[in-house]
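Narrative summary of target 7.
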Amino acid sequence: MKNFLIATTIFLITSKAKAQIDPELLRNPQTKTDSVRMNMDAVYSRPFMQLGKLPVALGGYIEANYQYLNENGVSEGHQFQMRRLTFFVSSTISKRIKFLTEIEFEDGTKEINIEFASVDLEIVPLLNLRGGVVMNPIGAFNQNHDGPKWEFVDRPIAATQMLPATWSNVGFGIYGKKYNKNWVYGYELYLTNGFDDKIISNSENRTFLPATKMNRDRFEESFNGIPLFTGKVAIKNRKIGELGISYMGGVYNKFRDEGITLDKKRKLNVFAVDFNSTLPRLNTVITGEWAWVNVDMPDNYTEQFGRKQQGGFVDFVQPVVKRPMFGFEQAVLNAALRVEYVDWNKGTFKSTGGNIADDLFSLVPAISWRPTPQTVFRINYRYNWQHDLLGNPPSHLAAFQVGFSTYF
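Modeled conformation, tokenized:
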């Protein structure tokens, strides 16, 4: 009887909720150009459902896939993966105070992360305050990473293996936008907790910024007491597209402990450029991002650890068929291609003058089908060429992937 009552309550709530989905939030930048929203709006550009008279709105997305990988003739066979399950909860506390959180479960429950949990105070369009767990706006993918928005099973390598994708920290900042006819200008400025020395002391044995995500203490204390600064400016023309320039920098090492000086302050600087555009007539969507990383390395570290890194990606998505399919009125069939490159160690060996390799180049052709703008079924073929530190002949990885992702 208890289970019956619970099931009935859930059914009644969700039945009421379906009629209250805001259709404006179902817009997808990969399938339909939005003339107003920018990458900085990605955290709110999602479908939410108001549950009856509850003061909160709920949403989320799911990603799952099958893949078969072969690296240099060796394969682990057929693999099924539950990449992630993400929940959104938002609330309009008052007319100009909003709250939103994003909680993600990766690989089943292997990792559980609070990726965003902030309160926004809207003063005027050009000046708003944000505090809590914020998503550092370096590049565009870090904020605009939802699976249903992309035609590819894997996230970009540069965003996940060079930059720490879904990188968020506790902090405060300001943001705003200004509109002028066909132009939109936006900015974000934040001070947060930041990186730690795991970026150069990790199991990867290379300079590896994503390793710092393992430090859960960053949500309650700073590793060295120096705030990480992240800033971004962006400009968008409603007919041309959006261009963003961002910077993230701060001290990553513990230079002082209990008043004793251990080392000098060693800085980490990241610069990124991102863009997106839709070609007229063809409706080809082009999305790209490129980033540069500079790390002040201790003198006792070998050249195996890169002082400079760079990498990025560019996606081409071409709608091929737009018409009702199988009872879905807004169905779209896309052909897509991702080109990506990462150099984890840009430079030369001091002893020989030879180039330090440790790089990767990848091509990912894809076919995707969107029965609705918020759901995507995708077929990808990935081929990677990866050089080791010494630039020996590259290892080859080929992967066939089939998956889906959808908002709910």
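The chain has two helices and 19 strands.
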